[in-house]
Amino acid sequence: MLEDCKHLLYMDDTKDDNMEKIVLLGTAGAVTNSERDNVSLVYCAQKAPLGAYHCLLECGGSAAHKLAKLGIPYETLKDIIITHTHLDHLYGLPGLIFSMIYRDRLRTQPLRIYCPEPAVGALTALIELSDLAAHSSFPFEVRGVPMEESALVLENQYARITSTPVEHAPDVPTIGIKIHSKPSNRIFVYSSDTGYSERFIHFAQQADILCHECAGLAKHPIPALHSTALQVGLVAEQSAAKQLVLVHLDTVANDDPAEIVAEVRQHFSGEVSVASDFDEYAI
Q1: Contact in structure between 26 and 62 (CB atoms under 8 Å)
Q2: Distance between CA atoms of residues 150 and 220, nearest Å
Q3: Which residues 6+ apart lie within 8 Å of 157 measured at CB?
Q4: For residue 100, pLDDT beyond 80
Q5: Which residues of 177-212 are buried (b: 16+ CB within 10 A; e: fewer)?
Q6: Domain coordinates of the chain in residue numbers?
Q7: If you average pLDDT over residues 99-117, what whole number do you get?
Q8: Number of helices and strands (H, E) in the chain?
Q9: What Pfam families would the database entry show (predicted)?
Q10: Model pTM?
Q11: Highest CATH level, class, for 2-282
Q12: What is the pLDDT of residue 97?
């Protein structure tokens, strides 16, 4: 309900000249339900005198609607990061671009879309198949990110964003993401879809907020190269994360959040939250 989300509305309403946060647009895995949309996050930054900046991580089917619900103007959405080409992470992309085209006919600034280098062809084909460029006043730039540890995705006055390969499907290159805030010097790390990964643990060291996928309790058969709550707790402990946020939750198993937290606690004693759609975290 919109009434429940009023505190999330566009940051100009806060009268704070400098603010950064992550808002979770969706927290489900592959299957959505009435309470959870596919996983998607938006990095919101405001810095005087530069104004507002937004970067979308993943693009589930309702991304355009969720951004509108938050009151985020399309002109401040400059960058989109897609971590891999599984459908639940990108199928909202053509619809979002379509909405942007018809909402802002005067935009000329490019929309930059970042993905693993091997995925550039697939994302470009998706956009071309939708015939979006023929109707747009602004270009779309699909940029490949090298599949190497601490690869630079983008850097601006607000943040430095880097990536690392993670352990997901062998035929679907996948990256985890780190947002290092320049104003606050705080670090937000997002795992994307991954199994237990020592490389990711190294990448996520000392994260102020670790946002990690959680496919369910260890008692369930978990799909290969996803993470149980027990494994996520171990990752959080070994990376010395200050706060753990669980996303990409299995809406079919629909595990009790208290049981998930209890399993995480077998390894990790820090702050843990089983995220809900529209939760926000200051960075």
Answers
A1: yes
A2: 33
A3: 47, 50, 182
A4: yes
A5: bbbbbeeeebbbbbbbbbbbbeebbebbeebbbbbb
A6: 2-282
A7: 94
A8: 6, 14
A9: Anti-Pycsar_Apyc1
A10: 0.93
A11: alpha beta
A12: 97
